[in-house]
Amino acid sequence: MSKIVILGAGISGHVAATHLRRKLSKEHEVVVVSPNSNYQWIPSNIWVGVGRMKSKEILFPLAPLYKKKGIGYKQAKAVSFFPEGDMTESSPYVLAEYVAGSSKGEKEKVTYDYLINATGPKLNFEATEGLVPGKNKTYSVCTYTHADHAWEGLKDVINQMKAGKKAKILIGTGHAKSTCQGAAFEYVLNVEQELRRHNVRNMAEVTWISNEYQLGDFGMDGVLMSYGSMSMKSSEMVEMIFEDRDIKWILGAGVNKVEDGVAHYENLDGEQKSESYDFAMLIPSFSGHGFKAYDKHKVDITDKLFKGFMIVDADYTAKPYDEWSVQDWPETYQNPTYKNIFAPGIAFAPPHAISKPRKSKNGTDISPAPPRTGMPSGITAKLVADNIIDSIKSGKESLHHKGSLGNMGAACIASAGFGMTKGSGISITTYPIVPDYNKYPNTQGRSLSKTFGNIGLAGHWLKLALHYAFIYKAKMRPFWWLIPE
Amino acid sequence: MTQRISKYQRFVMMNPIIQFFKFIYLSIRIMVVVAGGHGGTRKHVK
User: Fold this and answer.
1) β-pairing, A262-267 with A253-259?
2) CB pair distance less than 8 Å for A244 and B4
3) CA atoms within 13 A on the CB side of A177
């Protein structure tokens, strides 16, 4: 009998837990440790943030589902890791602290045979002075509660515009090293559409602010894609959309301070600038959770497990951009020191960025961190679960399932506006996610037959279909496993 | 505002009948890319 503990119940953690439970017999224990009581389908947060969906439509409580399916669940947060156990506990364990219920505040040693760290990122708002969701007229759509607040803020500004006040709206990244530009991109287009729907578009100046060097970088060094019968760069596509929607843009901007209605930033020329606004949605930087790890003698071994995020089978050798390669990226998400620990999704430490790193003239790093959200999170979680299942069933370590971001495709269905007849979406597929410049030297590291873009109403329907399909899958309804990650 | 998307392109993008067929086409094409498998990138020497 084996016990698999999964830290986190986001896309990655939940995918791993559900596949493990389906494929392993009941003699094996699957336990999820998560401080969150609800599962949330994060990609739909942008619709909550413009008031077109209620947050209850994108979430459901985890406890009843896990109880019904035989998955253990502890509403607790991981505090520290003891991969060798300690002097009194011979099994490896994670020290977890309960965050709700009668056990709130109590700590428990949660032992395991296999550990999946799917804790995702810490939303590091503190890294930008004054960037607090709901304060200084800034908001976030990173969680459903943030998105609810964002809609309240946006609604207020829309009402002010209806009363005749002109307004400035600023959307983008709130730190020089932020990632997840895609979510902000979706949000700016949805906000712009909602302004038109409320007949106040002419009262608003909408501005995109980003740490990207070029539009459409998205933390992936941009994409050259097939678009209809021609090829188009993502920068050209986004520029076309922004010009068509009258959205201004500020690029190479590292936001470093937010005051009431003013975002201060440094640009790549080293200039310190400010942008005023009446409503802002700025994505924070992501960081690791600051976990500590100890060996059985309680000696600190954090550097064996963490490098901000968790260390896995990547090549972390520091090297210049020209020497980066897809082979640097992990394939199995297994920690090299403790081989029963895995970290899929956002929880693994990337070997380096994907976009070319850039510094301002003052030496400040201003470029996007690599995205690992959404589809790659699900795919990497499933392959980690499959390797653990194979290892348990065969009685020896099996790492047959591999999935490097350098050999994996992803689809990004970016909403550009909500509505069954008025909506729009930008569908982009990318293969591979990390460009392979050796394999595809003439097409910016990507396969043009598998990397394409499309704009239109069908994109909205696709995004909506994915919303319902993935919530159906997450609820483990009949034949849920037939829906791919 | 700079009109970068022509009226014809906009018609195609927003016409529900054309977009219905586009929806089917995109669903299949995306499925091929995403469910088309993934793997490693390194050569493993045994």
Assistant:
1) antiparallel
2) yes
3) 15
- Tokens standing for residue B32: 């091929």
Q: Is the dihedral of CA A107, A126, A49, B17 positive or negative?
A: negative
Strands A272-276 and A262-267: antiparallel
Determine the Cα–Cα distance for residues A215 and A208; give it in Å rounded to an integer: 10
Provide the pLDDT for residue B44.
57
Output the pLDDT for position B46: 44
ipTM rounded to 2 decimals: 0.91
Q: Provide the angle, in degrees to the nearest 10, between the axes of the packed helices A62-69 and A11-23.
A: 20
What pLDDT, on the 0 to 100 scale, is given for residue B1? 60
Cross-chain CB nearest to B40 (options A241, A402, A424): A402
The number of C-alpha atoms within 13 Å of A474 and in the hemisphere containing its C-beta is: 24
**Strand order through the sheet with A3-7:** A72-74, A29-33, A3-7, A114-117, A341-342
Q: Is A164 left (phi over 0), alpha (psi -120 to 50) or beta?
A: left
Domain positions in chain A are 3-122+287-399
Q: What is the per-residue burial (b if ≥16 Cβ within 10 Å, else e) of A180-209?
A: bbbbbbbbbbbbbbbbebbebbebbebbbb
| Cβ atoms within 10 Å of A362's Cβ, excluding its own | 13
Q: What is the pLDDT of residues B1-46, one digit of tens each?
A: 667 889 999 999 999 999 999 999 999 988 888 777 788 888 754 4
> Can you give chain B as a three-state secondary structure string?
CCCCCCHHHHHHHHCHHHHHHHHHHHHHHHHHHHCCCCCCCCCCCC
* A3-122+287-399 classified as CATH 3.50.50.100: yes
Q: Is B39 in contact with A402 (Cβ distance < 8 A)?
A: yes
Which of these, A165, A428, A110, lies nearest to A278 by C-alpha position?
A165
Q: How far apart are CA A14 and CA A6, in angstroms?
A: 8
A54-74 pLDDT per residue, tens:
999 999 999 999 999 999 999
Distance (Å) from the C-alpha of residue A181 to the closest C-alpha of chain B? 21
Which regions in chain A score pLDDT beneath 70? none
Rounded to 10°, the helix A234-245/A181-197 angle is 20
- Per the CB < 8 A criterion, the answer to whether A347 and A377 are in contact is no
Rounded CA gap, A289 and A307, in Å? 11
Chain B residue closest in CA terms to A239: B4
What is the rounded CA–CA span in Å between residue A329 and residue B33?
20
Beta bridge partners, A341, equal: A115
* Dihedral angle sign, alpha carbons of residues A211, A406, A291, A148: positive
Q: How far is A484 from chain B (nearest CA, A)?
A: 7
Give the Cα separation of A17 and A385 in Å (integer): 8
